[in-house]
Amino acid sequence: VKDKPLKGMKVVVTAGPTQEDLDPVRFMTNHSSGKMGYAVARAARNLGADVTLVTGPVSLRKPVFMDVVEVRTAIQMFEAVEALKDEYDILVKSAAVSDYRVERVSDHKMKKQGNQLTIDFVTNPDILAHMGQLKKANQVVCGFAMETQDLVENATKKLVNKGADLIVANQLNEDAAGFKKDTNVVTILTGEGITKLDVMSKEALGYEIMNRLLQILVKKRGI
Ligand code: PMT
């Protein structure tokens, strides 16, 4: 059990981008490759957890020995994660979820017309905030914060407003951090304090995050 400290635990991880359709041909998305979330999911599995990975469309190899739920839109990701609300011990929301979706997806390919195009967007549900609200006293929720400025300030707001136990904050404009890279530079925020970590591989960071979340779980449950 010593090297499998998450044995018997259920861990849900989200990863990758979401895609929001404009019409049957086009969609809006972001640059997330899924590398960060997949690394977290593999670390959780290797530490002994029973893992469900809810993933947006990525071109990474599907990890083995875990459940993989493939979704495309933020609404689909919301439904997949919410369905697991009573089952998880630890939830890690590394996915880059679109804050908005198109109000009315066109049934047919939009025709080119004029020199300007105006599209109405509506907000997507905030999955992390929703799960933070539903969270039971013995469950641990971890979010990410992707910022381009005021990292700690913005991430602190996300920690509080989204009901997370831990936020992994990354600043996109740091060289070794962010989308698609194999490394990341993060600051970890919890109710107990703020820790800036050195640059590390996303693989190693996956273990670092899971170990910290396990400590929080142990403390909450007094085990
Ligand atoms: O996939 P990679 O290429 O490896 O890149 C990694 C990463 C940069 C995508 C990752 O490290 C990261 O920062 N993921 C979170 C991206 C994000 O959406 O950050 P945010 O600050 O916009 O959102 C804050 C948190 O709320 C996140 O946990 C996000 O999953 C969650 N959220 C946001 C909007 C929404 N509608 N629902 C959510 O659950």
TrEMBL record:
<feature type="binding site">
    <location>
        <position position="99"/>
    </location>
    <ligand>
        <name>CTP</name>
    </ligand>
</feature>
<comment type="similarity">
    <text>In the N-terminal section; belongs to the HFCD (homo-oligomeric flavin containing Cys decarboxylase) superfamily.</text>
</comment>
<feature type="binding site">
    <location>
        <position position="158"/>
    </location>
    <ligand>
        <name>CTP</name>
    </ligand>
</feature>
<feature type="domain" description="DNA/pantothenate metabolism flavoprotein C-terminal">
    <location>
        <begin position="6"/>
        <end position="215"/>
    </location>
</feature>
<feature type="binding site">
    <location>
        <position position="144"/>
    </location>
    <ligand>
        <name>CTP</name>
    </ligand>
</feature>
<keyword id="KW-0285">Flavoprotein</keyword>
<feature type="binding site">
    <location>
        <position position="109"/>
    </location>
    <ligand>
        <name>CTP</name>
    </ligand>
</feature>
<dbReference type="GO" id="GO:0004633">
    <property type="term" value="F:phosphopantothenoylcysteine decarboxylase activity"/>
</dbReference>
<feature type="region of interest" description="Phosphopantothenate--cysteine ligase">
    <location>
        <begin position="11"/>
        <end position="223"/>
    </location>
</feature>
<comment type="pathway">
    <text>Cofactor biosynthesis; coenzyme A biosynthesis; CoA from (R)-pantothenate: step 3/5.</text>
</comment>
<keyword id="KW-0479">Metal-binding</keyword>
<comment type="function">
    <text>Catalyzes two steps in the biosynthesis of coenzyme A. In the first step cysteine is conjugated to 4'-phosphopantothenate to form 4-phosphopantothenoylcysteine, in the latter compound is decarboxylated to form 4'-phosphopantotheine.</text>
</comment>
<comment type="function">
    <text>Catalyzes two sequential steps in the biosynthesis of coenzyme A. In the first step cysteine is conjugated to 4'-phosphopantothenate to form 4-phosphopantothenoylcysteine. In the second step the latter compound is decarboxylated to form 4'-phosphopantotheine.</text>
</comment>
<keyword id="KW-0511">Multifunctional enzyme</keyword>
<keyword id="KW-0460">Magnesium</keyword>
<feature type="binding site">
    <location>
        <position position="162"/>
    </location>
    <ligand>
        <name>CTP</name>
    </ligand>
</feature>
<comment type="similarity">
    <text>In the C-terminal section; belongs to the PPC synthetase family.</text>
</comment>
<keyword id="KW-0456">Lyase</keyword>
<feature type="binding site">
    <location>
        <begin position="125"/>
        <end position="128"/>
    </location>
    <ligand>
        <name>CTP</name>
    </ligand>
</feature>
<dbReference type="GO" id="GO:0004632">
    <property type="term" value="F:phosphopantothenate--cysteine ligase activity"/>
</dbReference>
<protein>
    <recommendedName>
        <fullName>Coenzyme A biosynthesis bifunctional protein CoaBC</fullName>
        <ecNumber>4.1.1.36</ecNumber>
        <ecNumber>6.3.2.5</ecNumber>
    </recommendedName>
</protein>
<keyword id="KW-0436">Ligase</keyword>
<keyword id="KW-0210">Decarboxylase</keyword>
<keyword id="KW-0288">FMN</keyword>
<comment type="pathway">
    <text>Cofactor biosynthesis; coenzyme A biosynthesis; CoA from (R)-pantothenate: step 2/5.</text>
</comment>
